[in-house]
Amino acid sequence: MKLAYLALENYRKFAKIALEFPDGVTGIIGQNGVGKSTLVEAVCWALYGQSAARTKKELLKRTGASQEEACRVLLQFELNSDQYEVMREMVGKDLTPNAWVKVNGKVLIPSGAKSANELTRFLTQKIGMDRESFYTSLVAKQKELNALSDRTYGERRKLILRMLRIDAIDQAIASIRSDKRDKRRDIEFIKSKLKPVEELKQGLETFKAKERAEENQKLELERRIAKQIGLVDNLKKKRDENQAKYEEFNKLRQIIGILEERETSKTGEEHSKKKEVEELNVAASRLKEIRPKVVEYNACTLEKQKLDEARGKHFEVLQLRASKARALEELERLKSRKKGLERTKEQLEQDLQKYRALKQEEKKRADELSEIQNSINQKELKKEQLETRNYEIERLKTFLKGPQSQCPTCKRPLGLSYYLVIESYNDAIEENKNTFLGLENELKKLEEKANLLEEARKSIEKETILLERTPGKLDQLKEEIKPVENESKERESKLAEVSETLKSIGKVEFDELKWKEVGARLLDLQGFQEQWIRLANKVERIGVLEKELREISGELKGLDKTILESKDRLANLRFNEGEYKSISEAFDRNKDELSELEKQKAAVNQRILQLKNERERLENEIKEQDQLQTQIAHLKKEVRYLDWLAGDREEGLLNEFKSNLIGRIGPALSSYASQLLSQLSRGKYSELEVDENYEIHLIDQGEKYSLDRFSGGETDLANLCLRLAISQVIAERSGDIDFQFIILDEIFGSQDQERKRNILDALSTLTRRFRQIFLITHVDEIKDAMEHVIVVKENEDGTSSASLE
Fold first, then answer.
1. CB count, 10 Å around CB of 178?
2. Once rounded to an integer, what is the mean pLDDT over residues 655-668?
3. 339-373 as b/e: b if 16+ CB within 10 A
4. Is residue 634 part of a domain?
5. C-alpha–C-alpha distance, residues 654 and 598, integer Å
6. What is the per-residue pLDDT across 760-795, written as a single tens digit (0 to 9) for each?
7. Residue 449 near residue 438 (C-beta atoms within 8 A)
8. Number of structural domains, the chain?
9. Which of 171, 52, 33, 181 lies closest to 120, judged by CA?
10. What phi and psi values does residue 34 have, to the nearest 5 degrees?
């Protein structure tokens, strides 16, 4: 696997960068905190998603980026001669994940709702490593190098086994032993469910006898039901013979009722309309009486319109005179403003000097605040991790309601282990809470210090904001004088225009008293005008109402005739309603008796079903008991197999495999590390040995010595060689993947200048094994000794940039 290209958009401190990765030794150089390690994190994030990030996803997106802008990483690399192009991004307000991958230009996973998880699974399978193995194999850090020699035997052994993923065997052994304990508990649990089979068989025979008795009763009920059905069918036939006359009889009675109701309604409507005609005739007489008042109202309306027009011109003259006065005042104000602008210019020149001094102080405060904020972010992340752990533990506890609850892992009842599980959950929660309180106290102190710095910075910032536009204001003042002069000319022109308009209007005569008198008379006559309009609309309906009365009279005559004809048809039908009701009642009574017999049959069927279910339950229970015995035998066989894999102590196949693997790892690490040490020390030291306690020794002139004998630079060199050997072992164990790059993060430690140059020269020889070697460092003086350099620096706006030089 070889890296080719990396592009970032709004990732951490990077707004937008693009880098190509050449072969050979490449230095990634920059000051602390500018984002050197972020480039490595971005590569891992593109491959493995959020699990590769060192913070929560909200902190991945660049501060200051808008919601519309995506947080995006594009990575191109070569894997087994195939060209891969991977894009992973978070978009929108909720930072929704999205991804796609192309292999040799062909899209294998398109972007979509589940594309991010699909991409992680796809690349994990193709690379042959999970995120932790990938990072451990290909990224070496200074703190890991120090740990290889500074820690105790037990800690060092645990670290190396974890880096080599041998600790996974311990996890497998623990899982097998846990599974074995669960199966033994299952055996005991199943034994507690065993019942005496002979008693179950006796109960089964009893239920079979009851079921036969109910079947006999069912046959008798079916005989009686058949007889009752014949009687009901005979009565139904007689009832149906008179059904047509009964329906015609009811139909005629309904028609007569509807017609009589219609006749009553129309009679009332006729009376109502006659009364309305009489009222409208009275309204017509009233119209004649008020006609003179309406004529006078129209004359007053015309006179009022003329007076309103004169009144409008009168107020227009008043407004023009006021506008003229305001224009004169505005001219005076403009003259005063011009003098004020000249005085402001002198003050701005003094403010410019003060502004430059404040900007220097503001930068100093911002740098201090940034350092404190980084510490706060780290502790907030630890708090969040503790909260997540407690939440997960509490969630698991909610599923456990007692000893009968299922184990979250194997889904079997916990039994007595329930109390042990609850106790372990409570202990973990309490421990996390204590750690959480400690972090909160530390955060409180940091936040208090940050608040003081922020207040000081804001105070300076406020002054700076007030002054930062000073240079522009000086130039702006000159431009402001011109509009003042132009506005003065506009005001003078406006003044002349108003004077000319007043002259053109001339003298306006307006009688306010007469205008009010005419308005008052209109109000007095308004009621007559409204009454005229209302009555005139009503009187127009007299003709319509008289026509409707004639139509109603004709309809009433037709209704009388139809009612008489329907009553004659009803009398001629000759239907005996009493005889029909007697037959219907007999039919209903016998039908009810039939229904009762069917209910009794249904009850018998229900009892038969219950007896059948109980019989089948006993039969199933007998079968279940046989199955339980079979399960016990199967579980005992599985326990014996698990004992063979991992015994209760250090016995079992996996323990033997682990011991054999650990025994072979030491010599392999020693061999790889010795080859590297000989190259990096230019032959001064040719052999490094890792003993059974994972203690590191150097062979100096044929004698074996521990690292305590050597200088800090030589110790760092030995640790580096061992760390590279671990990466090589992991890479070889990865299968068919040939990893052709490695990343060394701040590895120089206490090396002097000469040793640093020696390490760089020796690393160049490693390009036969690793085509790409990346060195992350803040040591700027080694820049000229590298084949390629990627410079990472912070921009003035707080973002970072990276470029290949």
1. 14
2. 74
3. eeeeeeeeebeebeeebeebeeebeebeeebeebe
4. no
5. 71
6. 776 777 777 788 889 888 877 777 778 899 999 999
7. no
8. 2
9. 52
10. -85, -15
pLDDT of res. 5? 96
> Which one of 438, 454, 476 terminates a domain?
476
Per-residue model confidence as pLDDT tens digits over 417-436: 777 777 887 888 888 888 88
Q: Strand pairing partners for 793?
A: 801
Query: What's the pLDDT band for 682 if we cut at 50, 70, 90?
Result: confident
How far, CA to CA in Å, does 219 sit from each of 160, 214, 229, 604, 613?
84, 9, 16, 10, 20
Length reported for the chain: 805
Q: Does residue 40 sit within a domain?
A: yes
Residue with tokens 């971005």: 42
CB 9 within 8 A of CB 70: yes
Residues 6+ apart with CB under 8 A from 456: 365
> Are 25 and 788 spatial neighbours (Cβ–Cβ below 8 Å)?
yes
Higher pLDDT, 438 or 413: 438
CA 12, 15, 21, 26 torsion: positive or negative?
negative
Q: What is the DSSP letter of 62?
A: P
User: Which residue range(s) make up the domain with 331?
Assistant: 243-476
CATH number, domain at 108?
Answer: 3.40.50.300
Judge whether 664 and 656 are in contact, CB under 8 Å.
no
Q: Pairing between strand 2-11 and 800-804?
A: unpaired
- The answer to pTM > 0.85 is no
Cα–Cα distance, 242 to 584 (Å, whole number) = 10
List phi, psi (to 5°) of 691.
Answer: -80, -175
CA distance 376 to 214: 81
β-sheet with 696-700: strand ranges across: 688-690, 696-700, 703-706
Domain boundary among 458, 476, 494: 476
Residue 692 exposure: Cα atoms within 13 Å on the Cβ side: 3
Q: What is the largest CA-CA distance in the chain?
A: 143
* 3-state SS record for 691-754: CCCCCEEEEECCEEEEHHHCCHHHHHHHHHHHHHHHHHHHHHHCCCCCCCEEEEECCCCCCCHH
Backbone dihedral angles phi then psi of residue 694, each to the nearest 5 degrees: 60, 30
Cα–Cα distance for residue pair 716/725, rounded to 1 Å: 14
Interstrand relation of 139-141 and 772-777 (parallel, antiparallel or unpaired): unpaired
Query: Would you state the pLDDT for residue 97?
Result: 94
Q: Where are the beta strands (DSSP E) in 54-164?
A: 71-79, 82-91, 96-103, 106-109, 139-141
For residues 793 and 8, the answer to whether their CB atoms sit within 8 Å is no
Amino acid at 403: P
| Dist CA 698 CA 689 (whole Å) | 6
> What does the pLDDT read at residue 117?
94
The predicted structure's pLDDT at residue 88: 96
C-alpha distances (whole Å) from 447 to each of 188, 375, 437, 655 are: 57, 10, 15, 51
Q: Tell me whether residue 398 is in a domain.
A: yes
Closest CA to 23 of 771, 783, 790: 771
Which tokens in the block code for residue 39?
A: 């480039």
Nearest alpha-carbon partner for 574 in 235, 242, 238, 241 = 242
Compute the mean pLDDT over every residue in the chain, rounded to the nearest whole number: 81
Residue type for 141, please?
Answer: K
Residue 205 lies in a domain: no
Distance between CA 122 and CA 101 in Å, rounded?
9
Q: Name the more confident of 528 and 187.
A: 187
